[in-house]
Amino acid sequence: MILMGIKLSILIFDSYSLKDKRSTVKSILHRTQNKHHLTTAEVDEWDMHNKAVIGLGVVGSNRQLCQKKIEAALRDIEDFYEIEIIDHEWIIA
């Protein structure tokens, strides 16, 4: 069994309030859960209006499939939203 995740630090463009940020982050989390079947959560930087830290995770039996699933979600997030991924950290167990 493979547990794999990634912690993303993102910069949200056109976010001038916590309300704007929450809207974008919730959209990212729900879209990623529904489209890519990953576990998602906002894990840090709750009080910053233009920065967020998001965790994505998956459990599977094949390391390559888990990694491909997370990478597909990253491409989707980058292409669909007005954000910049400023840092990421892979977590593998």
TrEMBL record:
SUPFAM superfamilies associated with the record: Hypothetical protein TT1725
Q: Which InterPro entries match?
A: DUF503, TT1725-like_sf
What is the recorded name of this protein?
A: DUF503 domain-containing protein
What organism is this sequence from?
Answer: Alkalibacterium iburiense
Q: Which domain of life is it from?
A: Bacteria
